[in-house]
Design goal:
single chain, about 290 residues, mainly alpha, two-stranded antiparallel ribbon, 4 strands, elongated
Length: about 290
C-alpha cells in the first residue's frame, strides 16, 4: 500500500518579496539574453555603424534606439565612421585649409571645390588605419574626406566671407592678360576658361574689354616682333609674326593684318634694286 503524502504548506505562507523577486527575474532574464543585440544609448551609434552595410563613406540613415523597455528611434544622416560632431570638426578643418590656400593665391570657386574634393583630414592622434583593401579601410578613408554637401557648405561660407569671388578674379585676370601679357581677346577668354570661372563672370569680364583697339594693340606688338625677324622673305616674316600673334590670343584676321602692316610698313623692308637677285629683308640678302 502506497502512502500518499499530504502537500506541505509553509508555516508562514508565501513571501511577497519572493514572489516579486521571481517576477522581476522573469522580466530581467529575457532582457539579459537580448543585451548583445540591444546596446545602451551610449553604444547605440557605434553598434549601428557596425551593423549597417558599407556604402563607401556616403551618408546613410541610422536608426538609434533609446529608452528602457521600448525603442524611441529617430533617423539621422551619419557619414561612415564619424558622428555629427566629428563631421563638423572635419568641415571646420577643411575650411581653414581652404582659407590658407586662398591667402597664398586667388582661386575660382570651381578650383576651390576641386581642392576640397582632393583634400583629406588628418588622422586622429593614436588612430590606426585598417588594413588596405578592406571595407573598413574604405570607410575609414571616406570618414576623412568631405562629402558633396559638406564641400558646398565650405564653398558657400567662404563665398559669404568674400574669400571666393569669380567676378573679382575675372577682373584681375583680364587686367593681367591685357596690360602685362598684352594678350588678344581670344587669349583673355582662354585664360578665364582655363581657370574654370563661372560663365556669368566670364561674359561680364569680356564685355568690359574695349574691342576697338584690338588691331592697334596687335600692330604695336607685331612691329616689335618684326625687329627680331631677320634674314627671311617678307611673306615668311608675315607668317611668323601672325603665328606669334595668334598664340597671344589674337584672331587670325587681326593677326595677319597686323603682321602685314608691320612688315610692309617697316623701314627695315626695302625693295630690291634693279639687277639684284632675291629680296633684302633685314640684314641678310636672300638669294
Amino acid at each position: 500500500m502506497t502512502d500518499e503524502l499530504a502537500p506541505v504548506t509553509p508555516l508562514f505562507g508565501s513571501s511577497p518579496a519572493s514572489d516579486q523577486s521571481a517576477s522581476e527575474a522573469d522580466v530581467v532574464a529575457p532582457a539579459t539574453e537580448q543585451a548583445p543585440s540591444s546596446p545602451g544609448r551610449r553604444d547605440a551609434a557605434s553598434s549601428a555603424a557596425e551593423s549597417r552595410p558599407s556604402t563607401g563613406g556616403a551618408p546613410r540613415l541610422v536608426s538609434i534606439p533609446g529608452g528602457q523597455g521600448e525603442t524611441q528611434a529617430f533617423t539621422a544622416v551619419v557619414p561612415a565612421g564619424m558622428d555629427a560632431e566629428s563631421r563638423q570638426r572635419l568641415v571646420e578643418e577643411a575650411q581653414e585649409t581652404l582659407v590658407r590656400a586662398l591667402a597664398r593665391s586667388d582661386r575660382s570657386i570651381e578650383e576651390a571645390r576641386r581642392l576640397l574634393r582632393d583634400w583629406r583630414g588628418e588622422d586622429p592622434q593614436g588612430a590606426q588605419a585598417p588594413e588596405d583593401g578592406s571595407e573598413e579601410a574604405a570607410d575609414y578613408e571616406a570618414s576623412h574626406r568631405l562629402d558633396d554637401d559638406e564641400t558646398e557648405q565650405v564653398i558657400e561660407r567662404c563665398t559669404e566671407l568674400g574669400y571666393l569671388d569669380d567676378f573679382r578674379l575675372a577682373e584681375l585676370l583680364v587686367h593681367k592678360a591685357r596690360d602685362k601679357k598684352r594678350s588678344g581677346i581670344q587669349g583673355v577668354e582662354r585664360t578665364l576658361r582655363d581657370r574654370h570661372l563661372s560663365t556669368e563672370a566670364i561674359q561680364e569680364a569680356l564685355a568690359e574689354i574695349d574691342r576697338d583697339d584690338e588691331l592697334e594693340r596687335a600692330t604695336e606688338l607685331a612691329t616689335e616682333r618684326a625687329r627680331r625677324v631677320t634674314g627671311v622673305e617678307p611673306d615668311a616674316a608675315i607668317r611668323r609674326i601672325a603665328g606669334f600673334l595668334s598664340r597671344r590670343g589674337y584672331s587670325a584676321g587681326v593677326a595677319f593684318t597686323a603682321a602685314r602692316e608691320a612688315v610692309q610698313g617697316s623701314p627695315r623692308t626695302r625693295r630690291p634694286s634693279s639687277g639684284s637677285a632675291g629680296v633684302f629683308f633685314g640684314v641678310t640678302p636672300v638669294e
